[in-house]
Amino acid sequence: MNAPERFFLADVQSSPDERQLAIHQVGVRGLRYPLALFSDRGEVRHTVATVAMSVGLPPEVKGTHMSRFVELLESRRSPMSMAGLQRMLEEMLVRLDATSGRIEMTFPWFITKAAPVSGVESMLDYDVTLVLEKRAGNYAETRLEVVAPVTSLCPCSKKISDYGAHNQRSHITLVVLLRAEMSIEALVRIAEEEASCEVFGLLKRPDEKWVTERAYDNPKFVEDLVRDIALRLMDEPRIAEWTVKSENFESIHNHSAYAEIHGRNA
């Protein structure tokens, strides 16, 4: 046995497959990796993402090269923008000789917020999912999903009560298909501005008075929340399609109130 033969390892994945069945998605999922992204202010934010990466496999090919997905993540340690993530998708398709593929990242995103009166700063976390996908023969698409915690105050409770009104923490979920780059922070602001009040990680007594009165002066049903946010998204030129969901964790019931609306921009 000569030296070249001794070190030859068969590439089983690239061998032909006789079943002639294309696979729509094959890859890896459940990967947890450090992720550094630029905020809307150009600052670098560090987080840890749970990642799923896949490509389409032609019917004549036996398998994909799983190690190349991890190699791609290892090569992308520097901070990235949305455009950089899109380039990573294109590189994945080249590395795996594929015409379709998908990268999904789910991660907590921290935004520094200043309290409304005292100005004291604290960080608040938001759940974010970013999906980059390209189907064969189509342009790449970017979907951005954020879950923003807010306060909602019941208009009915305010109307019928001699004093006070019940309020609750709500989760606003926005899912958008982007036409142009849009920051996580910009999407969060839309949700927070249309709520009865936004929430903060740290409040002093003057701030607590402010947020309590802000919510009382701005009551909204779960239906109001999704409709008002939908109107904002309909006027956003960077968005092609959108979905708004609101789940209000009721303070006077042992169940949630829920509403959902979706649409497409011209």
TrEMBL record:
User: Mind listing the UniProt keywords for this protein, alphabetically?
Assistant: Hydrolase
Range of residues in the leader sequence: none
Q: What is its EC number?
A: 3.5.4.16
Question: Catalyzes what?
Answer: GTP + H2O = 7,8-dihydroneopterin 3'-triphosphate + formate + H(+)
InterPro entries cross-referenced by the UniProt entry: GTP_cyclohydrolase_FolE2 (IPR022838), GTP_cyclohydrolase_FolE2/MptA (IPR003801)
- Record's superkingdom? Bacteria
Site annotated as May be catalytically important: where? C154
- Which GO MF terms are attached to this record? GTP cyclohydrolase I activity
| One GO process term, biological-process aspect | tetrahydrofolate biosynthetic process
Q: In which pathway does it act?
A: Cofactor biosynthesis; 7,8-dihydroneopterin triphosphate biosynthesis; 7,8-dihydroneopterin triphosphate from GTP: step 1/1
- Report the function annotation for this chain: Converts GTP to 7,8-dihydroneopterin triphosphate.
Homology family: Belongs to the GTP cyclohydrolase IV family.
According to UniProt, the name of this protein is GTP cyclohydrolase FolE2
Q: Which organism is it from?
A: Candidatus Proximibacter danicus
